[in-house]
Write a structure and sequence with these properties.
The structure is a homodimer of 373-residue chains. Chain A is an alpha/beta fold. Chain A has two domains: 44-270, Type I PLP-dependent aspartate aminotransferase-like (Major domain) (Aspartate Aminotransferase, domain 2, 3-Layer(aba) Sandwich); 273-371, Alpha-Beta Complex (Aspartate Aminotransferase, domain 1). The first copy, chain A, has helices spanning 33-44, 61-78, 92-104, 118-127, 240-245, 255-270, 273-294, 321-328, 356-371; strands at 9-17, 22-23, 84-89, 110-115, 132-138, 157-163, 165-166, 171-172, 183-186, 203-207, 218-223, 298-300, 311-316, 334-335, 346-349. The radius of gyration of chain A is 22 Å and the shape is flat. Chain A starts with 8 loop residues before the first strand and ends with a helix. Chains A and B meet through strand 1, helix 1, helix 3 and helix 6 of A and strand 1, helix 1, helix 3 and helix 6 of B.
Chain lengths: 373, 373
C-alpha cells in the first residue's frame, strides 16, 4: 500500500447565453445570478471535496455547516428574537395552510382569517378541518383590490391569519401590526423584502421560491410557546415540535434547495441586508408604478395605498392591447409578465433578485408601445 | 421599435477535482456523473432559453415537458399498468409513513405490517394514529438479520406494508409476492434497481435520494381504486387524490429535484433499463460479498439468502479493526462506508449509479488490509 493521489482541478466548460431574459415571473422566480453560478458549481463538485452537493449525506459536516449558516443568517437578517425557532420543511405554503391549524387549533376553538385573496381563502378552508374559523374581513367583493384595515378580532381566537402579500392581486401591507391574539402570516412572496418586526408575529411561514431560494423548501418562524399548542396526536412530519427538536433534521431534508437559500441569504447580507433590500425594492416599484400612472394605455389593479412592491399588476385601458403588448415586449427579452388568469392584463413580479435595469427595460417598452399609437 | 438582439453563447468555466471519491454513502448518495453535469448546466441556463432551471415557472412549457417525460419514463421502465397513477410529492418516505394510512385506512380497520427494521417499525407507528395495526412477523429479536417469510396476513387487513430493502441491516427481498390484501411497499432504497411486477402491489413509494434523484422528491405509484379509500376529510396536501387529479401540479413542485429524476431515468434507459441495471447490481454485490466471505478479517451482517444488493453491511471479525480499516481506506478515496450506529462496522451502499470500479477499489483495499496483518 501507500499510493498517493494528487488531486488537481479540471476546468469544466458550461454554456450560457450572453443575453439573459428579464424575468418578471411570479414564482418560481429570478434568483441572484451568483446563486445560479454557485449552485451550478456545487452540482458539479461541492467546495473541492471530490463530491457533488447532490450526493453528500444530510448528516455530513458539510451539510451541517450549510444548515447552521442558513439558520444563523436568517436569524441575523430578520433579527429574530431568541424565543422563536426557525424550521425548514417541505411542501410549500399549501402544506402550511394545513399545518398551522393542525398544530395550533383544537377542534372546539376558533381561528380568525383575513380574506385578502385566493391563498388566504385556501388557508381558511384548510383550518375548517381542524376547528372553527371566523373571517374578520374580506375584500373579495371588490376583486381583492385592497387590504381591509378596520375589523375586530374576537378575543377568543387562537390566532389571526394574514397574507402579507397577495401575488395574484398585487396588494401588500407593510405594517407589522399587533393584535390581541398571535398573528400568523403567510409571507411566501415578500419575506426578506423588507425588515420585519418578528416579535409582532406568532408564526411566519414562507415557501422559498420567490425571495429565498429554489422551489422545494419552506421556512417557518414560530414563537416557542406555540409549538405543540393543539392537543391532537400528530403525525411526525406534520408536527412543528419534531422539526424544532431535531433542528429540521428528523429526516432527509432537501439539501440542494436549502443550499440555494444559503447562497441567497449571503447575497442579501452582502448587499446590505433588509434595509438596503427595502430601499432597492421601493425604487423598482416606484419607477414602474409611476409609468403605469403616467402612461394613458395602462392602469393599475390594486388601490394605490395597498400596492405591492413584489407583484405589480396592471391592465391595458383598451382590452385589445393585452395580446399586442405581450407580443410587443418579446424583443426586449421581457419574460413572465402575463397576468394571472382571473385578473388578466399584466403582472410584473419584482422580487429581491430582479435588478432595476429589468424594470427600466419594461418602462422603456411601455413608452415605446405608447409611441406606436 | 425593431431592435434585434443576437444571442451568443458564453463559455463558463467550472472547477472539478480530477479524482472523484468512491461514494458508498447510504443516501443522499451517488448519482450518475452525467446527472451532476447536466443539472449543473441547468442551474446556469436551461436548454439555451436564457433562464436558469431554478427560475422557471412550474406552469411553463419547459417544466411541463420535464414532468411529462419523467412520468412517461417511469411508466416505461417499470412497465406500470394503466390502472396505476404515478404521483410526485415532497416529504420523503417518512411523510408516506403517515400518508399511506391517512389515505387508505379507516379508524375501525386494521393494516398489517411486516417488521424488518427501523423504517418498517416507524411506518407501523404512524399507522396507529389512523386505525388499528397488526404486525405479521418481526425479525427484531435477531437484530433484523433476515426477512421473515412465513406469516399469515389476516384477510380483513386493508393492506400489508413491507419494506423491500432495509438500508440499516442490509436485507432485501427480490420476489414480488401477492397476498390476499394489497401490498404497500416502501421501495425507497431499491426502486429502479431491478424489474418489478407492479401489478403485485397496491402502492409503492420511494424517496428519491438513493436511486432516483436528489433529495426533496418522493414517488408514489398507486392503484387507482385505492385513491381516496379512507373516508376521513383530508387536507389537500396529504390527499393522494389531489395529486392524482392535478397531475402532481396542485402546488409548486420541487422543479430541480424532479429534473434530477428525469436525468437519472434517461441514464437508466440508455444503459438498458432495469434488466441491465439488475445485472450490473448483481455483479457489484457478488464481487463484494465474495470478498467479505473470503477475507478472514470481515463477516457479513445479514443472512446469506436475504442479502441486499443495495446496502452491503459487514463487520470486522476483530472489533479493533473497525477504526483501523476506516482510516486505511482513506488513500483509496473511499467515502461513506461507516456503518449505521446501531449496527456498527461498515456499510457499502452500492446504488445504481455506483460503478463496479468503485467496488473493485474497495475489494482491493480489503485485500491490502489483510496483507498488513
Amino acid at each position: 500500500m501507500g499510493r498517493t493521489h494528487y488531486i488537481c482541478c479540471l476546468s469544466i466548460s458550461m454554456k450560457k447565453s450572453s443575453m439573459k431574459k428579464h424575468n418578471f415571473g411570479a414564482g418560481p422566480s429570478i434568483l441572484p445570478q451568483e446563486v445560479f453560478e454557485q449552485s451550478a458549481q456545487a452540482c458539479l463538485e461541492y467546495n473541492g471535496i471530490g463530491l457533488s452537493l447532490l450526493e453528500i449525506s444530510h448528516r455530513s459536516k458539510e451539510f451541517e455547516a450549510i444548515l447552521d449558516e442558513t439558520l444563523t443568517l436568517t436569524r441575523e437578517l430578520l433579527q429574530i428574537p431568541d424565543n422563536y425557532k426557525v424550521l425548514l420543511m417541505q411542501g410549500g405554503a399549501n402544506m402550511q395552510f394545513a399545518m398551522v391549524p393542525y398544530n395550533l387549533l383544537n377542534e372546539n376553538e376558533t381561528a380568525s382569517y383575513l380574506d385578502t385573496g385566493v391563498w388566504a381563502a385556501k388557508a381558511e378552508e384548510e383550518a375548517r378541518l381542524y376547528g372553527k374559523t371566523h373571517i374578520v374581513a374580506s375584500s373579495k367583493p371588490d376583486a381583492y383590490r385592497y387590504i381591509p384595515k378596520t375589523f375586530e378580532v374576537p378575543k377568543d381566537s387562537v390566532y389571526l391569519h394574514v397574507t402579507s402579500n397577495n401575488t395574484i392581486y398585487g396588494t401588500e401591507f407593510f405594517e407589522d401590526k399587533s393584535y390581541d391574539v398571535p398573528v400568523v402570516a403567510d409571507m411566501s412572496s415578500d419575506i426578506f423584502s423588507r425588515p420585519v418586526d418578528v416579535s409582532r408575529y406568532g408564526l411566519i411561514y414562507a415557501g422559498a421560491q420567490k425571495n429565498l431560494g429554489s422551489a422545494g423548501i419552506t421556512m417557518v418562524i414560530i414563537r416557542e410557546d406555540l409549538i405543540g399548542r393543539s392537543a391532537r396526536a400528530k403525525s411526525k412530519m406534520w408536527d412543528y415540535g419534531i422539526y424544532a427538536k431535531n433542528n429540521s433534521l428528523y429526516n432527509t431534508p432537501p439539501v440542494f434547495a436549502i443550499y440555494t437559500c444559503l447562497l441567497t441569504l449571503r447575497w442579501l447580507k452582502k448587499l446590505g441586508g433588509l434595509t438596503a433590500m427595502e430601499k432597492r425594492n421601493k425604487a423598482k416599484a416606484e419607477l414602474l408604478y409611476a409609468e403605469i400612472d403616467r402612461n394613458p394605455l395602462f392602469k393599475g389593479h390594486a388601490v394605490a395605498e395597498d400596492r405591492s412592491r413584489m407583484n405589480i399588476n396592471f391592465v391595458p385601458v383598451h382590452p385589445e392591447d393585452e395580446a399586442a403588448f405581450l407580443e410587443f415586449v418579446k424583443p426586449y427579452h421581457i419574460h413572465g409578465i402575463k397576468g394571472y388568469r382571473t385578473v388578466g392584463g399584466f403582472r410584473a413580479s419584482c422580487y429581491n433578485a430582479l435588478p432595476i435595469e429589468s424594470v427600466q427595460v419594461l418602462v422603456q417598452a411601455m413608452q415605446d408601445f405608447e409611441k406606436t399609437k
